[in-house]
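stage 2 :: seqdesign
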């Protein structure tokens, strides 16, 4: 079961307005840092100085260097000191100190939807007290630009090198990989955090992200010329070179909707030092710069609705179809929006949602395109759902279903584009919805 937490119970639709006419390319960077935030009485991390003071310095460094998406691990009992000196617009609420919290938090210049915390299925205390806290991973669907989303995962895997540790860590990494297979279908993905793994620890199976999810390690790609190391090379802290390997890693992939390319990798060690030159953490922070560009064949709108139900995406199927075009629209609804569907001219049909409601259909002409959709959301059983849809074609024809509310947004395909499919989350009804565009 997926336990989801959104930053707000309902985001006003006016903040998610849907013309996909924003930038079609850009860049951003990420930082991963284990901030050594275990209580000093439990773990010194071999870092000199006062941990609260160091945490405040870490937060000020986040601001000084302007990282776009930051994942931190071991952010336990000194969390407030980091946030007190940081000013990122979007930050996760802490899940608590030891032993209640996972130590995982994110700070970003971009907003997100569907923030979720997931605990590891397996942990080991063979080498250290990994089972003391609910370690695991977090997920958030980050909006880089209008209609441009990247699924971001933050993880802190089991530590140690005993057999039980490697078994637990293998399970941890596979748990994230399986989650990606379910919840990131069709999406660009970033996984970064403290894996506690190296490529030379074969039993960990750190290559699962490449083999199972199609992710690339920018360190291997940019620093190691695409060759996975077979000989262990340990880093100093601070590290004066990037050729050595740390357990803190980044993995990424693009999608048929957004292209991603890693352009820079670095250990940020010398930027994160105390005033006297001592380290702030026992881990070398890592950063990667990415460029992104919208696809010339598929794009998507922003989302409306809540983070409930099961994730679905028509993107993979649409990516295999040459010049997709809608021929029949089929919606069903009554008090709320129960289901949405579209049949393409090649016979491919996409249907999402439940079986309830009254069915309404619209057949498009051979030179007619679905160009716009209005959605309205509301709350039902304390969950945000889509209550209403109104589709408009290039000829001015309309098809509607459900019951309109006062919280609505209109999503219009870019000039020369059309709506051909959906992404979102569903169950008995339409919980969350966005639209997929293709050229006319």
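stage 2 :: out
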């Amino acid at each position: 079961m997926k336990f989801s937490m959104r930053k707000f119970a309902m985001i006003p639709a006016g903040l998610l307005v849907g013309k996909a006419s924003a930038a079609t390319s850009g860049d951003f960077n990420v930082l991963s840092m284990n901030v050594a935030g275990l209580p000093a009485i439990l773990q010194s991390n071999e870092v000199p100085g006062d941990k609260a003071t160091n945490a405040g310095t870490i937060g000020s460094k986040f601001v000084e260097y302007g990282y776009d998406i930051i994942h931190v691990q071991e952010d336990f009992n000194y969390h407030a000191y980091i946030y007190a000196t940081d000013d990122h617009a979007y930050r996760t609420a802490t899940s608590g100190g030891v032993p209640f919290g996972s130590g995982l938090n994110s700070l970003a210049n971009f907003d997100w939807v569907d923030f979720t915390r997931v605990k590891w299925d397996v942990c080991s205390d063979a080498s250290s007290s990994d089972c003391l806290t609910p370690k695991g991973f977090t997920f958030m669907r980050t909006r880089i630009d209008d209609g441009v989303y990247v699924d971001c995962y933050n993880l802190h895997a089991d530590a140690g090198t005993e057999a039980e540790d490697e078994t637990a860590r293998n399970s941890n990494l596979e748990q994230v990989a399986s989650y990606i297979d379910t919840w990131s279908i069709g999406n660009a993905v970033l996984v970064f955090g403290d894996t506690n793994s190296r490529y030379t620890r074969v039993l960990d199976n750190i290559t699962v992200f490449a083999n199972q999810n199609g992710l690339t390690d920018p360190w291997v790609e940019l620093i190691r010329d695409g060759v996975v190391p077979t000989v262990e090379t340990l880093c100093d802290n601070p590290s004066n070179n990037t050729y050595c390997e740390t357990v803190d890693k980044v993995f990424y992939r693009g999608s048929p909707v957004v292209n991603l390319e890693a352009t820079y990798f670095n250990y940020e060690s010398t930027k994160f030092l105390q005033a006297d030159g001592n380290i702030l953490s026992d881990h070398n922070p890592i950063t990667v710069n990415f460029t992104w560009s919208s696809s010339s064949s598929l794009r998507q709108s922003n989302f409306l609705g809540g983070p409930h139900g099961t994730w679905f995406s028509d993107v993979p199927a649409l990516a295999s179809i040459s010049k997709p075009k809608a021929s029949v629209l089929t919606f069903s609804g009554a008090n709320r929006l129960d289901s949405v569907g579209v049949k393409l001219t090649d016979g491919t049909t996409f249907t999402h949602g439940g079986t309830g409601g009254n069915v309404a259909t619209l057949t498009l002409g051979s030179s007619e395109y679905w160009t716009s959709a209005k959605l309205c959301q509301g709350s039902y059983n304390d969950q945000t759902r889509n209550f209403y849809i109104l589709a408009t074609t290039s000829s001015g024809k309309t098809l509607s279903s459900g019951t309109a509310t006062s919280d609505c947004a209109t999503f219009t395909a870019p000039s020369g584009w059309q709506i051909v499919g959906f992404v979102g989350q569903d169950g008995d009804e339409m919980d969350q919805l966005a639209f997929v565009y293709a050229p006319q």
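stage 3 :: structure notes
- The chain is about 15% helix and 40% strand.
- The radius of gyration is 23 Å.
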